[in-house]
């Protein structure tokens, strides 16, 4: 068990900048991987975690080169091997599972053939043995009907199934070490939990060592024995998973854990100031100095070494870690947020809204016939009160973004009405809306890289709504822009910058500022924090909450992340296949009894705590179309009672906590079932 | 990755940026050669009337088909005119006509392409089918028809060439627009209620400008070749105005014993076309557009 299979010694990797400076991305990294152990490498984007993981299989991205140090697999340095020698090791001794299996699998080859290819390369089995092995592998990764699966093409599989195939391919060569680069990041919550469960099982079953790279401490917590925390190209903390997650003794890890929204906490997570330094910008002192609240003058001048603490079996890179040792009970705290006034008027009403992506056929159009009887989104009734934050939650394909788009007027509704202020019907066509209604509803998008024009300066970006809605110009325009930047806590000097010169969090702040420039009544937030790092996410959530409290804006918040939703929202609506399942005040939706789908979702949430295991109650199959009759969740429901679920749309039932649930099971019965 | 390195050189005005692009273009040998050739031709076209040693239309039976000598550097042609004089003057019409022709092509092709890309739907379908239909007509036949109906003045040639070379730009501009149209910043501008014109001007043009400019530069060199072909066929510049295409056409029968009268205009024309091509490629690389991955339409 204690045999070391791969060890990295003083590894530095860097690149030459355009100005000829040598800039290192990894600095002096040393770590050991033991046999049978799963090591989680965690860090935010740009921390060097992927570079480290790839170097561990002897791969260095183009443009980068090793500056010093070595990567020893058993006793050979991978970085000095020829590509011929590496060929013998990759796949057979070290295998990799990529982030996006959909892109890693060849689209025009059958699954079985692709696994067979791996077997032919890495084993000496003959044809019949290989065929047997393929179905064995497909069985092992728990794919349904492995006999027929081998004859399918990758596009016929769901994302989770594709990822399982990738796992099977990696296992084909019986590797000693498995490398996983964010293997569950692109998957839905329930699928993610299932894949992680599978990986954990495989690690135990085969005794393979694993290196699990992720930004998600929740996923890391589920699989890792040991955790390595990276920051700005250095290892800042390394130790047993439980110790790192429960009693982090590095201020960065501590802050990171605090900034993760948790299901058990109602308020907003605390945010860390600032952002990670860019490679090459640290010349002296600790790389975490300017974000650290324990920093002293010593930290500014001298950079701390990785210190081994025998008692905790932990390595830490901090001068002042002792101050944190007794502080850790504070991890379970959050910032309480002001709740909205429940007496307020309704500002937006969705009444029987249906949205269909199907194009009306020519003849149906002539005969005025409704062609799509089974639209993507159906029967949505939500009343949104002024000043509240309502969240729409669901997995991909649940129709949450579709609803948001039609509120914004970007998608026409098929049926139903959207009513704005005093029951005035808003046209579902953007061109028919009056300018004041357009101003009143603003959008913030998921990815600020896409939502900000790369060829505009921040000043140009922010002046667009100000010019359009308020006809501002000259000094007044400039004053307003500076005010807006101040509101989102950015300095005046950001005005002349282009989006590419800003960090992810700063970009999203500019996007928030642009939405608020219109002085809107309602802001539609489409997964606004999903593209951000955890510590930045917390800061953006806090900013949104602060702005709402100051300006009384109403948010419609779309997210797949139940913990984030718990942190920010007052009311939650759970959607499955474009149909509402449950709606109610957020503290109640997170309590039982709840709709079986909410139960499944809640069970699959990964918490950064090794003691809280996800509860897998339903299959992670993906349905492409909503069922034509009956309950939308009939295909996956773990509590399905019979034919009634397939034939009749379930009635709304109001629980004692005030949340409405759409289920055929009596609500009291549901409560006792879920106890 | 080099984010902070970019932040160091944050604010640059447009002039500095243009200078920066020129510097990047000149940093590679091919770009430097291309720029030098184009610059040489432009300067020559500007100053040639003042430095030409002879009168370009002076016919003399005494100096017919003289070989190159100290007096006549490039020799003389069949009418006894100095080939050097006619060569350095011969690019002037071609350059002016094709330069303005390319501008017109860029303007209408670019704007129509962007518009079609943005609105999509039926309008897009109809316009693109019309463009396709025009693309299928051999341009030289159509040009001959126009020129024989309306004459060969520059007022006819410039818009006619501009029209025929703009068709291809429509496709490029439309494709470039499709690349940005799905981005959220366009959706965001739409949701705010900006007009189509405002979206084209503020959001799309800054993002497709580079691609269209590069395409325009390539079209310029093609148009030069096209214009010279017209002259060669006798439908471009009318004699006695010196023009490379015309000179090649007039002297091509004498190639076997008076090669000098053909070589000079050929070198003039091909060097300019190669120069513009090299410059356009370097320009594209300096802007970060890889032409090799995008087939010209």
Mind sketching the topology for me?
The complex is a heterodimer of chains A (675) and B (297).
Chain A (H helix, E strand, L loop, with lengths): L3 E13 L5 E13 L3 E5 L6 H7 L9 E9 L2 E2 L5 H7 L4 E4 L3 H4 L6 H12 L4 H14 L5 H4 L9 H14 L4 E5 L7 H18 L2 E6 L2 H7 L2 E6 L2 E7 H6 L4 H8 L38 H5 L5 E3 L4 E3 L5 H4 L20 E10 L6 H5 L10 E9 L3 E5 L6 H9 L6 E6 L3 E3 L8 H6 E4 L3 H4 L6 H13 L3 H14 L16 H14 L4 E5 L7 H18 L2 E6 L2 H7 L2 E6 L2 E7 H4 L6 H9 L38 H5 L4 E3 L5 E3 L4 H8 L1
Parallel strand pairs in A: 3-8, 3-9, 6-7, 7-8, 15-20, 15-21, 18-19, 19-20
Antiparallel strand pairs in A: 1-2, 1-4, 4-5, 9-10, 10-12, 11-12, 13-14, 13-16, 16-17, 21-22, 22-24, 23-24
Helix pairs in contact in A: 4-7, 5-7, 7-8, 8-24, 18-19, 18-20, 19-20, 20-21
Chain B lengths: L2 H6 L5 H13 L2 H23 L31 H37 L1 H16 L2 H12 L3 H28 L2 H9 L3 H37 L11 H8 L8 H28 L10
Explain this structure.
Chain A is an alpha/beta fold and 675 residues long. Among the domains of chain A are: 4-93 and 175-248, Rossmann fold; 348-583, 3-Layer(aba) Sandwich (Rossmann fold). In chain A, the strands form four sheets. Chain A has an eight-stranded mixed sheet, with helices on both faces. Chain A has an eight-stranded mixed sheet with strand order 18-19-20-15-21-22-24-23, sandwiched between helices. A four-stranded antiparallel sheet of chain A has the order 2-1-4-5. In chain B, 73% of the residues lie in helices and 0% in strands. Chain B has eleven helices and no strands. Mean pLDDT of chain B is 83; it is low at 1-11 and 293-297. The A-B interface holds A 15, 17-19, 25, 46, 278-281, 408-410, 430, 433, 435, 438-439, 441-443, 445-447, 450-456, 460, 464-465, 468-469, 496-497, 500-501, 503, 514, 518 and B 1-7, 10-11, 183-185, 187-194, 198, 202-203, 206-207.
